[in-house]
Amino acid sequence: MRVTLKRTSSSWWDERKYKIFIQGDQVTTLKEGESRVVEIAANPITVEAKFSWYGSKREKLFVNDGDTLEFIDNIRYSRQAPFVGVPIPILFLLYRGVEILWLRWIFATSMLAILFWFFYILFVARKRWIIIHHEKH
Known about the structure:
Radius of gyration: 20 Å
CATH topology of the largest domain: Immunoglobulin-like
Helix content: 25-40%
CATH architecture of the largest domain: Sandwich
Order of helices and strands: EEEEEEEEHHHE
Structural class: alpha+beta
């Protein structure tokens, strides 16, 4: 059966290539806005998309001839991640320059929360970076 693999275009330029794995084997790579038709033999299939350290969850899907699997950036993580660490130095400087104890606690707690979010994105959310959407024919 033939299945279309499609990567959506994002609102900003993205040169990453997604490696698409079906049944654990890499079948193709997709650039932004690109689509390819592949031949699938088994059903159900396991599908996963990766780039660098990040990717999607491994999903088990039942596909039919003519179905489309669309790979979409999860905006929640891909747009926030580059900027997560930016407030930490600012909060650290504010923390060092303030003598009021309760205000220092607020700055320190904010730094820890942002650091926690950074590690969450780096290690937990890395498998939620790409969303696989199954469009049935």
